[in-house]
Structures are given as structure tokens and as C-alpha cells.
Amino acid sequence: MSTLSETGAAGSAPGVGAGAADAPPPPEERAETALARTLQSIARSDLLVVVMSFVFAFLIGSVLIVIADEEVRTTLGYFFARPSDALTAIWQSVTHAYGAMFRGAVFDGPGFSRVAEDVREAGGSGTYVLFPALAAGLRPLTETLTVATPLIIAAAGMAVSFRAGLFNIGGTGQLIVGAMAAGYVGFAFQLPVVLHLLVALLAGVLAGGVWGGIAGFLKARFGANEVISTIMLNWIATYLLFFALKTTAFTGANQSQPTSPSVGENATLPLLLGGGFRLHAGLFLAAGAAVLLWWLMSRSTLGFHFRAVGSNPRAARVAGISPARTAFLVLAVAGALVGLAGAVHVLGTERRLTEGVAGNIGFDAITVALLGRSGPVGIVLAGLLFAALSTGGRFMETNQGVPLDLVQVIQVLVVLFIAAPPLVRTLIGLRRIDHPGAGARRARRTRAVEVPATVGAAAGASTAAGTAGTTADGPAAGGSDGSSSGGAHRADVPVDGGAPPGDAPPTGASGTGTHARQDPSDGTAPASERGEDTTDAQEDHR
């Protein structure tokens, strides 16, 4: 009897328990070190994507430089005879081109040395040598800051609309009307020094706000798509400028050339480094625009409404925020900032109106805002980078003969890579960062399949052994009145009143032992496990 009791106890419920005990337990999360957490945060950050986007863009640009270099192509013709000539030519072509770009954008080392030697030969020493040499060496940096000033202000205006969920393409038109208004006030009126400058800047802001507000009104009142309306307003502003420069009001006595009179001295932005440099006080307005963007979108009620409508218009409407009114205000504020950029450009850099006064600033501002993730710090850095590429590219073209179009290619490639972070992470071997739970989900599903199979195999083997033992001892175990068997089972009943081992839930007929993962109430899998498996499957399907 004791043998039967032990066999039954080992063959039914305890058998299943033993199989479950043999299954691998779920892995515990390992404690991450500070270095591992730091590396993970860097891998997931946007900074890594931006840096690697520039790296890949410059690598592709290097290939284009090599292809365009005639000397490199000549050395490649006899590459197998003398490979060192080709490799040297490739290295010199790329390094000289990018070295010239750095000289034209940040610091002109040869110019610094040349001026220093000239001053020393003239008998100068100490600061008499240092200051003129620094002025020559840092001149490219001042040009980069000058180009970046209106670009940063215009990009701040674009960021307002982007963060509100509106894709404003009207930067060029808003900048043109802002420049026209500020320029006209600058050369057509005579006002006191400070007042004249303030009125001209205010005129540019109001003109840009009105021009952006037109698109906002069309969006709010008639539901017109802001992309189409702002693009059309760009062309209207462009041809309006062409027409104005052929009228007496804008050209004055000079009717032969489509340019306006120069802005009065009282309306110009003061130069920061004297007449030898173009850097002007608009640089402070660019810094103020970045601060204003931060305050407006992060600390003001109006900015909260902008972000709420951009995130979820339906929820914003339920909260009492009018999406139509907000769309009008968004485009008006964005246009005002872009109009300020046009005023700063004409009052500080150009000093007069021409047909090409806007240049590519309006469209470049869109790229800068997207590159800077519509944040103030990102916009400032992206504006400086794009300005450096522009000024350095011109010097690279004149000094090394590399086409200026290459700079445009590099800018487009940078935007392309930044717009696709998964592509960048895949190229650098960090594809799993974009799918952080895929490996863990696959491991859980594998365990969910393997554990029931292991449990079922162990339960089936134990049940078969118990059945064999019962058949062999049948006459003794199943006495005429069953008293002996009953006594054996009563001896195994736990003291706490729990179910005896022989009364454990039987294993299914197939021997899979699925009851180890079933819910005792309805015999189905626990809700937490069913929901987890379903969610994992849906995420992997996506």
C-alpha cells in the first residue's frame, strides 16, 4: 500500500509540480552600471543621429569631391601600377577642400600668420601684432555669424508653426514683405536715431504677421490647406517686390536699376566690430528670438494652446481651445518672427532692397527648424552649421575650385539622414535601439512554448508510471470494501486541510500538462499572460 501511495503521489500532482520546477525561471533583470546607462542614453539620443548624419553626409561629399577632381581621375588611370599616387591625390583633394571650408567658415590660419608676419616686418610687436592677426583670422567667423543671424530668427518663426502642427512653407514671402516694409520705412522717413530703427523693425514685424495671418485666416475660416496657401503667398510677395522696385516710391530717382535707395543711417543696425566687418547688432535679436521661442512654447498660456492643438486638436477643442482661432494666431506669430528676420537682414546686412534680397533664407529656415527639432538650442546650432556651410562653401569654391553646388548636396544629405533616424542607427549598427523589446518578447514567447511542453512531458511520464503501478497492485489496492485504499489515502491527507496528492487535477489526455498555466476559475490561461502574448504579437507584427 505504501508503494501504491508513493507511486500515486509521485504520478499525479507532484509529477506535474516536478515538471514545472524543472522549467527555466524567468530571467531577472540585471542591474545596469552607470556606464551602460550612459551608453544607452547616448545611443537613443538625437545628438548621436545629428552627428552621424553630418559624418555620413561629409563622407558622401568626399566621394563627390574625388570624382570631380581631374588629378585624382588621372592617377586612378594607373592605379595598379602606382597605387600610392592615387591614394595621396585622394587624401589631398579631400583634406584641402574641407580645410578650405573651415578656413572660410571659422578661422583662417594662413591669413592669421600672414598678417602677423607683415606687422612684425613693419616693426610691430605684442598686441600690435596680435589684434590685427586675430581680426584677419576670425573674419570668417564673423561672416558666419552675419549669415546665421536672419536664418536663426526665421527658423524660430518656422518652429512655432511646426510645433503647433502646421507646416508653414511661406517663409520666403513673409521675409520679403518684412524686408519691404522695414526698408521703405528706413529710406522714406527721417526720424531720430533710436526711434527710426525701432519703427523700421516694428514695420517688418507687422508686415510679416499680416502676411502670415492671411494664410491663418484662410485656414481658420475656410479650411484652406496652409501648405498651398503659403506657397502661393510666396509667389505673390516675390512678384510684388519686382513690381515695387519698378515704381517711383521704391526706386526714387534711380529708374534704371531695380534697387531701392540705401537705408538711412538712423535706421541701420549698428556694427559690432567696426566698419571692416559686417557683423551687426541683429545678432542680439537672433539670440532674443531663440529665448522668445523657449518662453512662448514652454512658459506661456498661448504657447500651451499652440502645443495642445498641434498634439491633439479634438482634445484641445474639448478643453475649450478653438483650433481655428489657434491656427490663425500660430501663422500670425510665425509670420511676425519671419518678418523680423527680413527687417534685420535689410537693415543690418543688405542696407537696400533688391530683387534677390530674400535669397534662400526662407527655405533654409525650414531646414534649420527641422534640423534643430524646433527647439531654441537646436535651431541656434543648426543655423550656425548651415551658415558655416554657406560661407565656407564659397571660399572652398574660390580657393580649391570645388563647385558650390556640393555644399547644397551636403545640406540635403544631412536633412535626409536626420529625417530617418532608424536609417542612421542601422548604418552604425544600433538597429535594436529602435526596437528595444523585440529580443525580450521573442524570448518570452519561446519560454511560453517550451515550458508547457516540458511540463506536459514530465506529467505524462509520471502518469504512465502511476498507471502501471496501479495495474500491478490492483487486487491489493482495490480491496472488496476499499478500506485499505481509503486508509492509505487518509494517511496522506495534509494537516491543513488541503487536497490530498491523489486528488490533484488530472493531466489532460494528450499529456501536455496545460493545466499548469490555466486559471483555476475557468480553465483558461491567466489574463496577464494572454494580454502579454497578444501585445507582443501585435508589436512584432507592426
Automatic annotation (TrEMBL):
Superkingdom per UniProt: Bacteria
Low complexity bias spans: 8-22, 461-475, 486-498, 505-514
Record carries keyword Metal-binding: no
GO cellular component: plasma membrane
Region Disordered, residue ranges: 1-30, 461-542
Subcellular location(s) per record: Cell membrane
GO MF, any single term: transmembrane transporter activity
Keywords: Cell membrane, Membrane, Transmembrane, Transmembrane helix
Membrane topology, record value: Multi-pass membrane protein
InterPro entries according to UniProt: ABC_transp_permease
Biased composition (Gly residues): 476-485
Basic and acidic residues bias spans: 529-542
Name of the protein: ABC transporter permease
Species the sequence originates in: Brachybacterium paraconglomeratum
The organism's taxonomic lineage, starting at the top: Bacteria, Bacillati, Actinomycetota, Actinomycetes, Micrococcales
